[in-house]
Structure formats: C-alpha cells, structure tokens
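Late entry, written up from scratch paper. The run itself happened at the end of the previous shift, but nothing got recorded in the book at the time, so transcribing now.
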Amino acid sequence: MGRLLAALALTLGFVVISAPSASASDATHWLVAPCPAGSKALWLPRADKFGTDLSCTTEQARAAAVKAAVDSGSPTRMMNVALAFAQQLSDKSLTPQSPCVLGAKGAIGEAFGTCVAA
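Output as recorded:
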C-alpha cells in the first residue's frame, strides 16, 4: 500500500508540474456561496470515474468516501483520493479576491466558490 501511495504521489506531482497553466482573466471573480450549517466545501473523490467533485459536506462524509475509495482497491479511485487531497490543499490559499479561470470551482475557506465573469 505504501508503494502504491508513493507512486500515486509521484504521478500526481508529474501531472501538476507538467500541466499547462490556465491563465486567470481580469474580467472574472469568485462568487462565494456559504455552505449550510455543519458542512463545508470539501473536494471528494469520484466513485464512478476519474476525477473529483467539490461539495458542501461534512468531514465524516468525506472520510467515508475516502475509506470506500481506498478499500475498493481501484487504482483510479485511489488516484481520485490523492487528487481530492491535493485540490483541498491547493484551495487553502484561495480568497474571494484571488484571480480565477472562468468556470473554476474552489473551496474558499469553508464556502463554495465558482469563478464567474465580472
């Protein structure tokens, strides 16, 4: 399991470093919507295909989704877990004033952010 996680981390690092950077537009801004009480914006691993989703949910629900993905043994689902954690970590630096790419989603504090045209 340790080797698999190390391989996933290495792959994720390569993908993040080699991906072309999208450029933020001056004509965009974050539209921030607070999550309902008791929840916060968290990146979740998808269960059915490659990728992640941002959702207003609880830490317990996220932990259950991560456990299910890891327990599945699916390399795709485990990669989704790594991506979800990386996105959550990356979003820690976001503020409502941060530049953004039209259509992007992000966890801004505990709120759900969507990049919209100004």
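Confidence is low (pLDDT under 50) at residues 14-21.
(Scratch paper discarded after transcription.)
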